[in-house]
Amino acid sequence: MNESTVLNADASEIAKFSALAHKWWDKDSEFKPLHQINPLRLGFIDEIAGLAGKSVVDVGCGGGILSEGMASHGAQVTGIDLAERSLKIARLHLHESGLKVDYRLIAVEDLATEAPASFDVVTCMEMLEHVPTPASIIEACSRLVKPGGWVFFSTLNRNVKSYALAVVGAEYIMGMLPRGTHDYTRFIKPSELSRMARNVGLETVTLTGLSYNPITKVYALGEDSDVNYMIACHKPA
Question: Among 51, 87, 128, 151, which is most buried by a count of CB atoms within 10 Å?
């Protein structure tokens, strides 16, 4: 393991997701929210970037929920993660789905050094709030994407409402996520994320909120970015 991996990976976060790895494809498990929002994420990415025939790298792919979704839309997908158990589950699920995804145990910074400007689309969803230095991840994503390509990020906003809903509500009251899933101090405001992207040559084109209705139990895209949000960034040609 080289220096970049050591510097920008939280061992406790990797251990947390490794312990849950066997549940990645259980739609009634702790990963239920990811399965529920996956069609929304896919639609957002596909509408902007057009996945069919594109080369895509899914950074922090976990068990492959988004990776497989993009592959089903005709993309040539590489999924990378540092949780080896999650990658094993992702590879096993390919036998069930019949899809093709190249899963690799590698840090995004290392892949960016190995294969710069190699992908039409880069996705990094629900990961930035789990790493010590998100700016390093964003910079690596910028290096990975081809000029004229797209980079997509999703994360959690940092404010009182997001703490109340994403941490207190989701983890302690409704039990939608295991307690300790999120560290509020690592949440990132959209202005901060856009600035970090701009600093590495990415132009933020659009932002959408991802909200949850606890009564209907339905997720939806919209203007409310107070808690969860996604941004699409373009790399100038």
Answer: 151
